[in-house]
Amino acid sequence: MTEPVITHLRHVDLAVPDLARQQEFFTGVWGLTNEHSDTGISFLAAEGSPEQYVVRLREAADKRIDLIAFGAATPADVDTLAHRLLVAGVRLVHEPTALQTPGGGYGFRFFDNEGRTVEISANVAVRRHRKIEVGESVPVRLSHVVVNSADPEGTRAFYERHLGFRLSDTLMHPRMGEMMYFLRINAWHHSLAIARGPHPSLHHASFELRGLDEYLRGTGRLLRAGVEKIWGPGRHLAGNNTFSYFLDPHGNTVEYTTELELVDEDAWHPHLYDFSQPEVSDQWGTANAMNEFVAQKSFNDLDKGLFVAPPV
């Protein structure tokens, strides 16, 4: 397995047909801040995060994941990882170069094994951010991204072998086998998870709230606003984090969460959890049951951006 040079999750970038509607959802209801916008593109920040933006929206005919972006500590680490990938036969979108997105920096892009575009960058300017106050139910940061995969074993192996991700836990089902892998790149239980699905797509993007009270306030605000809830509120066993899953205007699942577990690297041993046991999906027993409806919504549409780099 590759020695990790990736430090953290930066942002997830989505292409959507109706940019105005998607932007209104994320800023007017979800609680992100429109920091940098141009014609056909918006960069949305989380008030508590030093990242220039945690979501980028781009107007396009096809709905897709444009890219998933991770940080590295130094430009030298960026160069090291790009060289490793090139030698291993991974297809680069472009080699390391100065980035033209907000905050600048130095980075490169490549396709993962299923064709998602991934960006690795360093030296991105820190955004002026602030401490989220008690009772303020807006995202502190982007917590994690979960992708659907038609080849979850191969996708897990790709991220472990080439990018240094480590397995935290696995979800399994007695009839269906292993269904989800939780992967970490730092002390957080997972920054990326890979779910077994019918096709590559976004499963969900998750946003950390300040604490339990703020998480519940945010969940309630979305319910009062009439946003369709898929699953929750509850608390998972893997990661020990809370969950409330909602649909954005384009059918992507987005999550409010808090209290994601921090892993002791020296003592941690991955668990194999059977999610046919109700307490695995929801320790509290407050969420609606995980069923075909929840699974179907989480499958999302086939990503139309596989092995096609976004134009920006």
TrEMBL record:
It comes from the Bacteria. Pfam families: Glyoxalase (PF00903). InterPro entries: Glyas_Bleomycin-R_OHBP_Dase, Glyas_Fos-R_dOase_dom, GlyoxalaseI/FosfomycinResist, VOC_core. Residues 8-123, 141-259 form the VOC domain. PROSITE patterns: VOC (PS51819). This is Oxidoreductase.
